[in-house]
Amino acid sequence: MTVHNEALRDHACLIVHGPDQPGLVAAVTALVTRNEGNIVSLDQYSDNPAGGEFFQRVVFHRADLAAAVPAIEADLAGTLEPYGVAWKLTDQSIPKRMAILASTSDHCLLELLWRHRRGELPVTIPMVISNHTNTAEDVRTFGVPFFHVPSQGPDKSAAEAKILELVSGNVDFIVLARYMQIISDDFLQNVGVPVINIHHSFLPAFIGAAPYRKAKERGVKLIGATSHYVTKDLDEGPIIEQDVARVDHSMSAADLQARGAYVEREVLARAVQWHAEDRVIRSGNHTIVFT
């Protein structure tokens, strides 16, 4: 069954990315007009007008959009091919399907579930997968299926194979909500959907165990969080969102961790929302985010 957000019915989002050149904006807006669309919002950015990269996000309303999509896509292919740009058209009324992977920490997981229940995230959540069971009952109170996939020892291939079996064809993207396992390159190549991660912003200064204790010992004055797309290079993927909070000498390591958890929740929720709303365009190892 296809789920629709009625407030966004008949709204399409067009993403355009490619070489900047004269006439491209006019070509896109004229295309929307001749396909009986009315532009609701338009954001664009060029990193260099003289031979740089062009990024554009256009949201438009078109009555009976679903029936018109094939004709609009055919027009887009013919119109934009001479410009050598990539494009993607999505129906904004159809929420993206988001799987969540978690471990023992529940703050990011519950934040996403809570915001989803309140209607603040334009997604559906077909499943939560965890290598532990301590969050199972909390997840089920939100009416979301919970799957326990243990992951122990250095060989994670069996666990990753099971996760791939669960998500294959069922999700549009995956969120690592403090999932404390390293994702293999094989998994990323086989999963076929974007994977979003969240971590504290001490990396690479305080890697490994007990980062907040190490930060306390060094007398840090700022803590923060980073959400990014996962790539084969650990914690080096394109960044979607970051934020910081000021701390001081009077705060214990536990206080720092509590403040850090709050920032992590906020940063991850914003990153998920922006991705779900097609506001993020990846370009190499960085992102353009139209907020």
Overall form: globular
Number of distinct helices: 8
The proportion of residues in beta strands is 25-35%
Structural class: alpha/beta
- Rg, rounded, reads 21 Å
Overall pLDDT, averaged? 95
Elements, N to C (H/E): EHEEHEEHEHEHEHEHEEHEE
Distance from N terminus to C terminus (CA atoms, Å) equals: 30 Å
User: In which range does the helix fraction lie?
Assistant: 25-40%
Uncertain segments are none
Major sheet strand order? 7-6-5-8-9-10-11
- The beta-strand count equals 13
* Biggest pleated sheet: 7 strands, mixed
TL;DR of this structure?
With 291 residues, the protein is an alpha/beta fold.
Can you give a write-up of this model?
By secondary structure, the chain is α/β, with parallel strands linked by helices. The protein has eight helices and 13 strands. Strands 7-6-5-8-9-10-11 form a seven-stranded mixed sheet. It has a four-stranded antiparallel sheet with strand order 2-3-1-4, covered by helices on one side. The radius of gyration is 21 Å and the shape is globular. It starts with 10 loop residues before the first strand and ends with a strand.
Keyword list:
291 residues, alpha/beta, 4-stranded antiparallel beta sheet, globular
Helix-strand blueprint:
Layout: E1 11-19, H1 24-34, E2 38-46, E3 53-61, H2 65-80, E4 86-91, E5 96-102, H3 107-117, E6 123-130, H4 136-141, E7 146-148, H5 157-167, E8 173-177, H6 185-191, E9 195-200, H7 211-218, E10 222-229, E11 239-246, H8 253-276, E12 280-283, E13 286-289
Parallel strand pairs: 5-6, 5-8, 6-7, 8-9
Antiparallel strand pairs: 1-3, 1-4, 2-3, 9-10, 10-11, 12-13
Helix pairs in contact: 1-2, 3-8, 7-8
